[in-house]
Every structure is written in C-alpha cells, then in structure tokens.
Amino acid sequence: MRNRLLKMTVALGAVLVSSPAFFAQTAAPAQPAKSQPEIPARDFSGVWYGPMELNMVPESVGMQPWAEAKFNSEKTEYKVGNRPTVKDNTNTDPILHCDPVGIPRIYWSIHPFEIIQLHGRIMLYYEEFREVRDVWMDGRPLPKDPDPTWLGTSIGHWDGNDLVVDTVGFNDKTWLDSVGHPHSRDLHLTERFHRVNQDTMEVSITFDDPKAYKTSWTYGPKTVKLKPGWEIGELYCTVEDEKNFEKDIMNPSGKP
Amino acid sequence: MKSNRIFAFILFAGLLAVSAPLFAHHGQAAVDLNKKVTLKGTVTNFEWVNPHAHFSIDVKDESGKIQNWTMELTTPLMLQRLGWTRTILKAGDTVTATFYPAKNGSTIGILDNVLLADGTILGRGGSTHVGEQGVKQ
C-alpha cells in the first residue's frame, strides 16, 4: 500500500513537472486563470455564511457603570468573568422569548443571510428569525432623530467597491452579542462589507455608543463565505416552539 | 467497494460537519463537552422542530432495563444542509448515537453523530469549538 502511494506521488510529480502549465508558471509572470471569475464590483448578491461568534466586545473597551451592571445582571449559559451561568429557563437572553435577534449579533449565528440588491435599496435578509433590513442607497441622509426600532434605520453608500452601512435609531432591547452586552438608543453602527474574491467577503463592524461604552471599537474583519446553491429557509421563532423546547430539552437537561 | 466509498464519503462529510457550529439559540453548558457516550438503541420518535430537532432512543442496559435517551440537534434548516431529512429516522430504526451527556444526569445529550443501520453517519452540526467561556476556542 505504501509502495503504491509512493508510486502515485512520484507519477503525479512527474506529470506536474512535465506539464506546460508547470513551466508556464515558473517561466513567465502568472496570468489570471481564465476559469477564475472576476471579483464582482459593487455586487454582493447571494447567500453568505459567517463563523459563529459569541462575544463582540473586547475587555479593553470598558463599559459605562449602568451598562456593566446590566451586563453582570444577565443570566446566560456563557461564562464571562465571574458572572455565574445558568442552563435552564432562568436564562435572560431575549431571543429565548422570541425578541428579534438584532444586529450585529445576527451575523454570527449559525444561520446564513442573503444580500438582495434592488434599485436604490439593498435588503439584508437573515435566516435566523427571518429578520429583514432595508439599507437605503438612494442618497437620503442618516435621519437625525428616528423612531427607535429593533433593527434601526440604515443608510448605505459605496466607498470604492466596499459597501458601507450606517445604522442609527435602535431601541435598547437587543443584545449586541450572545453573551449579553447591552447598548443604548444612541448606538451608531457602521458595517463595512469588503469583497475579497468571488466567494469571500470580510465584514467589519464599528460600534459607537458613548452612553454605554467608554470608547468606540471595530470588530473584525471577519471572513464570510458565499454559499452558491443555498436558499434562505423559513425559521420563525414561535412561543409554542420555545415552550416545547424548554419542556423537552432545556429544563430537564439544565435544571440543577 | 462502491459502498465502502460511499461510506467513506459520508464519514468524511460527517467529520466536516463536526467542525461547523451548532447552536446560536443557546449554548451547550448543560452538557459535558469533555465526555462522549455511545449508545445503541431503537428510535422511539424524531421531532423535526425548531429551535432544535431531537430524537429519542430506547436503550437496554446490561440488566435489561430500558432507558429512553433524547438527542438534541440543531435547526431543521441547518440539518438539511448536512444531509438530514425529516424522514431519515423512523420509530423502530436501530441506530448508534454518540453524544455529549447532560451534566445533571438526565438522559439527554447533544448529539455528536449517529450511525444508521445502513452505515450512514450523520453529523450533528458540531459545536465543541464554542466553549463555555464565551469565546471561540
């Protein structure tokens, strides 16, 4: 078996070395392969899937006293610092009673999201809880005093080929991340989408919320992959599903 | 030979699946991620539901006593992307489940993978890289 593998390796090496492509690559400057698609300019259409992330706030940022007190009062399964963990329905995570996941937390769930580009508007369509955002690309200014909403009001623009989205007008009910970092109604998020190649982009998120945090900071860039062939499916949060989950799984396995 | 290849492919796909995250909806602090248990049993039900699909198996211990174990999975949408379907498990099927057991001693676990009677191995979506510390490991 080992001899066979060795022979195969030698044969493969011989084929590579004797192929015109091998010499072409070493003798002349590399040409872009014809089959390699160009990076789409100003087109992020498609279904994208990012890594799971739980904590988006570095310790160095520093919370304002009320925000720190709120953070420390939350009960989750995730151990951060000395905060005790819970494993049953005493968990205070708002998504467990079907509040919207909100942004930017929703990027780092286990579910994909789709970018749909329309005339004057880009829609961000997240599979988890089927949340949808409109990013207005028609030149309107960021509103000065919008009504607070779960997902805020988003205005986008192009910076070169990067898509930059500013969002204000959040309510203060969502968590920034799964470990429970709070935010105020003054939160201003700036998301930057940078296309690296055909199937990869990087997402960076800048947080500015002086009422809740001592400094602003940028999380990322995080690599997000295009998933050709994936379609966004139906995933609503329903009270009945959550209650069944508590009864069948969460409480029996999580109660002390 | 062909079936071996198919098996190897499915196993490989299952291993790939393990590296993917599992739960956005809640963590996995209730189970012992340092301990894996493998039990063979008979499927009693398969609930293809949100936020987490789950199935249960009757397992007979050495003394002949039957215990019903429940295996927690991820959402049906993500399971479909890993090759699961809502009919892939049926009551009466014999399966071998490998899982992380609940720390509180209940007969519940988070599935790692399940071996079906035909040799198919289905991954559970993975999650062990997400620890209880609230940071990615």
Architecture overview:
- The complex is a heterodimer of chains A (256) and B (137).
- Chain A is an alpha+beta fold.
- Chain A is 20% helix and 25% strand.
- In chain A, a hairpin with a 2-residue loop joins strand 7 and strand 8.
- Chain B has a single domain, classed as Nucleic acid-binding proteins (OB fold (Dihydrolipoamide Acetyltransferase, E2P)), CATH 2.40.50.
- In chain B, a hairpin with a 5-residue loop joins strand 5 and strand 6.
- The longest helix of chain B has 17 residues.
- The termini of chain B are far apart.
- The interface between A and B is large, with 44 and 38 residues.
Provide a concise account of the structure shown.
The complex is a heterodimer of chains A (about 260) and B (about 140). Chain A is α+β, with helices and mostly antiparallel strands. Chain A has helices at about 1-20, 20-25, 65-75, 240-255; strands at about 45-50, 115-120, 120-125, 130-135, 155-160, 160-170, 190-195, 200-210, 215-225.
Distance, first to last CA of chain B: 38 Å
| Average pLDDT taken over every residue of chain B | 78
What is the number of independent domains of chain A? 1
Write down the overall mean pLDDT of chain A: 88
Which stretches of chain A are poorly predicted, pLDDT < 50 over at least 5 residues?
Answer: 5-28
Per the CATH scheme, the topology name of chain B is OB fold (Dihydrolipoamide Acetyltransferase, E2P)
* Tally of separate domains of chain B: 1
Helix count, DSSP H or I runs of 4 or more residues of chain B: 2
Major sheet description of chain B: 5 strands, mixed, barrel
How many E strands of chain A?
A: 9
Strand content of chain A: 25-35%
Give the helix proportion of chain A (percent range): 10-25%
